[in-house]
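Pilot study result, target chain (186 residues):
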Amino acid sequence: MAKENARNDTTGRNKANTVNTETNRQDMPKFRDMDYFPSGVVLISMDAEEKILAVNQGICRFYQCASKQEFLDFTGGLYRGIMNSDEYVPLQEVYQRRDESGEIDPDGSWIYHFSMRTKEGHFRRLEGLLSPRELPRLGRVWTIHFIQSRTREEALETDAVTGLMGRHSFYKKALIAAAQDKKRMH
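Predicted structure:
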């Protein structure tokens, strides 16, 4: 049975999500500079509602949405709508767990990942950097800079700057060469 995104949970939040989406249409600030990031960027309120405050075009591409509004409609305008429902944990709770285990960097950020379903029904894994921030126009927010796990893996296969093999490719080839040398010696 396919996992459903949290926005498809039929516990009565659909009506609330419609209201939140309407609110987002009116309140979402214009952060045009975020569209220059090649990764997906999401700003989320630090309250219990965890409302999506702003997104960039990169996150729309990940979710196969044509526009920011389509992304907000698809997710219900809430953080819980961006992931599979069985992986949802409130960000404040995630932060406290990470802080207690010492996983948070000195700047307050940590690597974050989860599974999601695109608008076209494809399942993907996203990972990125999650951190609490104080922004002049929004106050305290969660910022998430996402990349697809596949993109990160591709970057480890080939160095984008030099075009040479990346770390993973190098180690794979080195292990194969070492195994071949070992066979020749015996």
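One observation from the pilot: Residues 6-157 form a domain with the Beta-Lactamase fold (CATH 3.30.450.20). A full batch analysis is planned for the follow-on phase.
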